[in-house]
Amino acid sequence: MIELIKKLKPQVVVTGMAQFEAITSSAFEHLLDTTRAIGSRLFLDISDHFELSSLPSPNGVFKYLAGTSLPSHAAIICGLLKNQVYSDLEVAFVISEEESIFKALSKTVELLEGNTALISQYYYGCILYELLAFQLADRHPSPERGCDKAETVEMIGFSSSAISVLDTAELSIDDKENSLLHMDVDQSFLPIPSPIKAAIFESFARQNMAESETDVAPSLREFIKAAYGFPSDSNTEFIYSDCPQSLFNKLVLCCIHEGGTLCFPSGSNGNYVSAAKFLKANIVDIPTESELGFKLTENALTNVLQTVKKPWVYISGPTINPTGLIYSNEEIESILSSCAKFGARVVLDTSFSGLEFNFEGWDLEDSFRKLNLDLRVCLLGGLSLKMLAGGFTFGFLVMADPCLVDELYSFSGLSKPHSTVKYATKKLLGHREQKAGNLLDAIGKQKQILGNRSKRLKETLEGCGWDVLEPCAGVSMVAKPSAYVSKIIKLDHSYKDASVYEAKIADSNIREAILRATGLCINSSSWTGIPGYCRFTVALTDSEFEKALDCIVKFKDIVF
Questions:
Q1: Alpha-carbon distance values, 219 to 199, 226, 430, 438 (Å)
Q2: pTM, entire model
Q3: What is the pLDDT of residue 109?
Q4: Residue by residue, what is the 3-state secondary structure of 491-559?
Q5: What phi and psi, each to the nearest 5 degrees, are found at residue 534?
Q6: For residue 403, with 0-12 CB atoms within 10 Å meaning exposed, 13-18 middle and 19 or more buried, which class applies?
């Protein structure tokens, strides 16, 4: 390996280590010195040598890290594979001491894969805590770590286009003190209903589950038919992942491979649009109008499809993210009719639906039959928001085109949900199908909470000079800070970093101004794709929602 690196002089080396090399630190040090000398970045995978045991085998990489800081050109990758309870329940991590690298990597993972489910993080936290409890306290004094003083030559970094997307993607803001209020994430922080807790607990308590107990396809088939009238048969493929986001990005890769163009309506999920840009997909924006609530219409879609070759149309529905409005059955049928006319592929994203305040659902079966759409439409979905399941995540993709299925499977890196997650998902879908009163009542109560919060947030925003588009569903709404544009904000003590801050408020800095003034995180118009409109989410804890409303009022008082 060393000689090969010296001869090829690659810009990036991604490798593992043989068992005999991993015992001492000498092989790792040699690899560090070689890659540093030629200006190559090193990503070393030690998954095979990280053993979750009370008596782990010697590990040369950890011996090195115990005494010396990791050079800026190197990063350690580790998947937690080796444990004796759930050997295939994997969480991975990266070790880097170069700030620019770990920040860029964390943003990339958040953008393309979503965040690791809290239940998986907690599971490994428990294992590591128990294993560390075996250690004898103060048996070995912690050594003083030395600094890596060798000079590193200039090496490859992230491309300027990738950095540009990451910088403007409005991903999660660093919050080391956990003091910020987040109205900028598509997650529910409401209490998890008891039936969902019971299903999750049972999934981890059960052992030796039969394959039929974790086969989610029959339950999903019934669910998508009942909720959307989405047809499926023996040729329909169900693909699963830890979250819908990673499945969406695999579809983006399929679009790129096909030479297609992704068409996003103005007013789409900002993370998905940023991910498509990061993957360098061809993107076209479909104009929407404020008079129609920024909904996609048949006429606007037709005008765009006339000019695009191999179009892929993204539609969020029935609930539209971020506006919280709903496509009626008639509206979505007219949109699908236009897509069928031009032979467009359709990504129908239902992952933000299921929390409608007063809506019965879609029935698309007749439309699919009349328009012959079975092979052209992919249904993307997830259960985290539908069930308000908090740290429990599950994404699915339903598609019938065998060529597209084969192409999607050809891309590596799809994070598949563990059998425990599929068991819990099947349980919950079964409760929903049987109309189990305790589950439906719990979800109904939380829908009512979300509806009441949306009304309170609307009243607060309007009272503070915002123009609000009232939502009909979901966990988010959009509003325009009409009264604040061109106003000057002056802060002697910024919430973000205690510095002095002064700015003329505009679309481009309203998010930063609110964050610095109050510690409240929202999404700006660059995320929503709707000029002038910001996005607020309402599924916070009770106390944080109240604090968020106070922050909105506080910002008004500071500016005016």
A1: 15, 11, 7, 19
A2: 0.88
A3: 82
A4: ECCCCCCCCCEEEECCCCCHHHHHHHHHCEECECHHHHCCCCCEEEECCCCHHHHHHHHHHHHHHHHHH
A5: -100, 165
A6: exposed
